[in-house]
Amino acid sequence: MTQKESASESISRAAYKSAYIQINEVGPRDGLQIEKAMVDTDAKVALVDALSECGFARIEVTSFTSPKAIPALADAQEVMRRIRRKPGVIYTALVPNVRGLERALEVGTDELNLVMSSSETHNRANLRMTREQSLAELKSILRAAAEQGPLPCNVSLSTAFGCPFDGDVAPTQVLDLALRLAEAGATGFTLCDTTGMAYPTQVAELCQRMETVLPGLPVTIHLHNTRGMALANALAAWQVGVTRFDAAAGGLGGCPYAPGASGNVNTEELVHMFECMGVDTGVALAPLMDIVRGLPALVQRALPNPLLAAGTRLHTHPAPAWLAEKFPAAS
Fold first, then answer.
1. Of 204, 236, 225, 207, residue with least CA distance to 267
2. Which residues pair with 62 in a beta bridge?
3. N or C: which end of the chain has fewer CB within 10 A?
4. CA separation for the pair 28, 206 (Å, rounded)
């Protein structure tokens, strides 16, 4: 067997094992936090409730960051308190510090999402801390969460595939942070292509190395479509066994520290791609598309969406009327 045949066979085996995937809808948090238009609390609650009916494994509802830092999500506790919880859906939130943890616990958040950057410069720009300071902060959150009982804490490692300031980020840099945080109690990791710098073979390699270094800990992929490779990167991750994906309805979101960066991978496009391939996402595409149609009014700006414009792959149209005259039915 050639090396090429062996690699192909390995990918086929991994893909066969991942015939079901979980999608974490991050639009209500990662999407809305960067929008210029302020979305009111009632509308946020209605959005989460509508998404809950679509079949998502997880919905990232909000962020318990200081309202001064992210005014768009100043109503985090009210939103989390008011949403209609659907059995089987995990409602998550971003928690930046111990005070944020306390606020999240007060309103019954199911899972915490902690975040830091894999690259030094982006961490300083985004979080106003060095990576060592961020590590210390995250470890204090993990300790506090452990004292509250078995509360899952996922850690999102931003710029895992490249930094807009530092360029390439060495995989060993990402793996070292993951190891240190796993030892401190992290229950899962999200590898974030924060600024859309990733490419498929790079994604596959880092995902495989994470599985080797931290076997058994779930890995989620968080992708942006800045350079048009988000779906290709998602497919590359799936082919090596990744089954958890972040996505945002309508492609909402973005990074303020990435010139020209676009939003997250579109949830509806990700669901549509996997549905075409026969991979079960658990997400109902039709009600999700209805939600996406309403997003431009919600965020008060246009959201170009090829899938909405063209329809799903097998969406058909009436044949041209003139065909009946040119090709009359045989008598």
1. 225
2. 93
3. C
4. 28
State how far the alpha carbon of 36 is from the alpha carbons of 12, 26, 31, 70, 298, in Å: 44, 17, 11, 11, 11
- For residue 37, the one-letter residue type is A
- Residue-wise pLDDT tens digits, 284-323: 999 999 999 999 999 999 998 999 999 999 999 999 999 9
Write down all domains in the chain, each with its CATH number in brackets: 18-326 (3.20.20.70)
Rounded CA gap, 220 and 238, in Å? 10
Q: Extract the tokens encoding 6.
A: 């062996």
Tens digits of residue pLDDT in 5-23? 444 454 454 544 457 899 9
The two beta strands, 90-94 and 111-117, are parallel
The residue to which tokens 């990791």 are assigned = 189
| Cβ atoms within 10 Å, residue 50 | 16
163 part of the active site: no
- Cα–Cα separations (whole angstroms), residue 44 to 27, 90, 234, 321: 10, 17, 27, 45
